[in-house]
Design a protein that fits this description.
about 450 residues, alpha/beta, Amidase signature (AS) enzymes, 14 helices, binds glutamine
Length: about 450
């Protein structure tokens, strides 16, 4: 803990930690020492971790990267962080992220972006998003592990950009209670760690049914770490032809081939498959996620949480609401609220939102068919490129930024678990990651498949 507290201060240039909690860390570290001395050694005893700013940690600023939550200190603790502290983990502080988890570069954060610790030239590179602070902090050894959340790739894309491991569990495996909501039918929390083994241990600590989240599954939590045998002989690994995009960089194609080779060497069989509706995943996601977000974000009204705009003489409740939201939400969040409100409006509901829901069902069906045909896991790239420079994407056209999510959003729509693992460097020397997609509730097997790629 002391070493991490020092590293955290030295790592300020990365802008990864946005609120540090050294007093809490020392208090928890002492408690962990006492537990160890008493012969009690829970799975994360004394392990210093960072927490994405999206999780409510009691008494600690929780802003979701937004000005509208400035000054908000929750009176409650999220289920996931409660479980971490029960498992003996030590809280170092809150980690930078895109505002309300909307973004792929960390640039929509009200704190300014976190910076990728990997550096190959004069540029400052993005750590990815939205859990970019979490990925940067783990990659730079500021903490041993971090919590992220993944609605459309926000754990896996930053993990790939920073050369670490990140797993998005099956929807319902981890409780969403106490996590600031972005798109409730897609959001899941998960670990971001240096190794697959660390991810298995941390996932075990945060998983499980929670009566406070009606979508959390009443399933027993397997021993994820015990599943890491490296034995994948006879397993069938699917390669979806729809992921072989036109104009895919040769480096990404070569990385994918290398992943296939590694799995073949371990005794798995590589099988070509088709996910015919995968090409609709990105537009479907960018209808459903903003629709849910526009509803979830309606609660920031200047009364209940954080920021309230200064009002002029004669202003009423409508002006308070409008001014507060105009000041508090950044441009990307406002864009999502407008898009979401539009697709939910009476005249356009059937054309957009309802149609997207139907396509989502077809996307899910594609995966069900692949798994029913005996596929054990699907291997794909995690991102279409390595980390890009801050300020280099999405400036003129937000859709350019959305294209980063082309490999990651599909499985969120289907509720499936996915993991990103670092598998080498590109020609510039920047990390690249591969992604594995697993059957629902089979995170243990998924982690074991990923273990082979490590
Ligand atoms: N980049 C995607 C978005 O902006 C995914 C974000 C996420 O997974 N939270 O919506």
């Amino acid at each position: 803990t002391m070493a991490c507290l020092t590293a955290m201060d030295a790592g300020d240039v990365l802008n990864a930690f946005v609120h540090k909690t050294p007093e809490l860390a020392l208090e928890q570290a002492r408690a962990a020492d006492a537990r160890l001395a008493g012969g009690d050694a829970p799975s994360l005893c004394g392990i210093p971790v960072g927490v994405k700013d999206l999780f409510a940690v009691k008494g600690v600023p929780t802003q979701a990267g937004s000005n509208i939550l400035r000054g908000f200190r929750p009176e409650y603790e999220s289920t996931v962080t409660t479980k971490l502290w029960e498992a003996g983990a030590v809280c170092l502080g809150k980690l930078n992220m895109d505002e309300f988890a909307m973004g792929s570069s960390n640039e929509s954060s009200c704190y300014g972006p976190a910076v990728n610790p990997w550096k190959v030239d004069d540029r400052r590179l993005t750590p990815g998003g939205s859990s970019g602070g979490s990925a940067a902090a783990v990659a730079a050894d500021l903490c041993l592990a971090a919590l992220g959340t993944d609605t459309g790739g926000s754990i896996r894309q930053p993990a790939a950009f920073c050369g670490i491991t990140g797993i998005k569990p099956t929807y319902g495996r981890v409780s969403r209670w106490g996590i600031v909501a972005y798109a409730s039918s897609l959001d899941q929390a998960g670990p971001m760690t240096r190794t697959v083994r660390d991810a298995a241990i941390m996932l075990g600590a945060i998983s499980g049914h929670d009566a406070k989240d009606s979508t959390s599954a009443e399933l027993a939590v397997p021993d994820f770490e015990a599943a890491l045998t490296g034995d994948i002989r006879g397993k069938k690994i699917g390669i979806a032809r729809e992921y072989r995009l036109d104009g895919m960089p040769t480096e990404i194609a070569a990385l994918w081939d290398r992943g296939m080779e590694m799995m073949r060497d371990a005794g798995a069989e590589i099988v070509d498959i088709s996910l015919p509706h995968a090409k609709y995943a990105l537009p479907t996601y960018y209808i459903i996620a903003p629709a849910e977000a526009s509803s979830n974000l309606a609660r920031y009204d200047g009364v209940r949480y954080g920021h309230r705009a200064k009002l002029a003489q004669g202003d009423g409740i409508t002006e308070m609401y409008e001014k507060t939201r105009a000041e508090g939400f950044g441009p990307e969040v406002q864009r999502r609220i407008m898009a979401g409100t539009y697709v939910l409006s009476a005249g356009f509901y059937d054309a957009y939102y309802n149609r997207a829901r139907k396509v989502r069902a077809l996307i899910k069906c594609d995966f069900e068919q692949a798994f029913a045909a005996g596929i054990d896991a699907i291997l794909a790239p995690a991102t279409p490129s390595s980390a890009f420079g801050l300020g280099e994407q999405g400036g003129a056209d937000p859709v350019e930024m959305y294209l980063n999510d082309v490999f990651t959003v599909t499985l969120n729509l289907a509720g499936l678990p996915g993991i990103a693992v670092p598998v080498g460097l590109d020609a510039k020397g920047l990390p690249l990651g591969l992604q594995l997609i697993g059957r629902p509730w089979e995170e243990a097997e998924l982690l074991n498949h990923a273990y082979v790629l490590e």
